[in-house]
Amino acid sequence: MGKRPFCPRSQGFYAGGGQGPSFGLGTFTANEICDAIQCIRLNSDFFDRVLGENASCPGAEDPVCPDDLALEICASFVRALLTEAGADAALDNECPGERFDSDNAILRQYLTNLLNVCISTTTDNGCVGGVLVEYVVDLTDDQATALGFGTDECVTVEEILALAEFALDNCGVGVTFSTAILADVLRDMAQDAGVTIILPIFCS
After folding, report:
1. DSSP secondary structure, the chain, as one string
2. Using CA atoms, how far apart are residues 189 and 166, in angstroms rounded to an integer?
3. 167-186, pLDDT tens digit by residue?
4. Are 81 and 90 in contact (CB under 8 A)?
5. Which pTM value belongs to this model?
C-alpha cells in the first residue's frame, strides 16, 4: 500500500461543475464513491439523515453497493450539498425556522472535510484525501479561544468536526462557540496540502 497520501482537497475540487474533477464516477471508482458515502453516514448523524432523504444513496451498513446509476445520482446529490443552494435546501429541511450564523458554510465545509477523511486514493488528478481524524489542526490563539479550546491545547481534526456536527445536529441550539470562526476554520482545513491548516502529525 505504501505511505498513506496526505492530500486534502477543497470544496471546489469535489463540487467540480465542468471545471475539472468532482465527486463522481468520472474521478473515483464505484467502490470509492460507495465507501465514502457510507463513511460519511457512519461519522455524522446529521449527514446520515440528509443522505437518507435520497433513495439512491447507500445506507451506512448496506452490505452491497447500489449500481452505478444510483451511485452517480447519490454523488450528484452530494455535489449539490456542496453548493450554497443545495446546503440551504438541506438546512431548511433539517432546521426549519432555526437557521444560525454561518450554517450554510459550516455544512459545505464540514462535508468537504468528511470527504477528505473518508477518501484516500490516487486518481488521474493526483492523490485525494488521506486525512486522519487524529491529525492536528493548526489554530491561531484567537481561533482556539473562539472555539472553546485553550491556546496551548493540541486540537485534532476530530474535535473540530465534532463542533460542526454539534452545531448542525442541534440547529445551533446550545452552541457556545463562534460558528463564524468554525466556518472559517473548516474552510482553511479543506484546502490542498501546503495550504491546509491540518498538519499530518499527532498530538504528543
Report:
1. --SPP-B---HHHHH-SSSS--SSTTTS-HHHHHHHHHHHHHH-HHHHHHHHTSTTSPPTT-SSPPPHHHHHHHHHHHHHHTSHHHHHHHHHHHSTT---TTHHHHHHHHHHHHHHHH-EEEETTEEEE---TTEEE---HHHHHHTT--TT---BHHHHHHHHHHHHHTTTTT--S-HHHHHHHHHHHSS-TTT-SEEEEE--
2. 18
3. 999 999 999 999 999 999 99
4. yes
5. 0.97
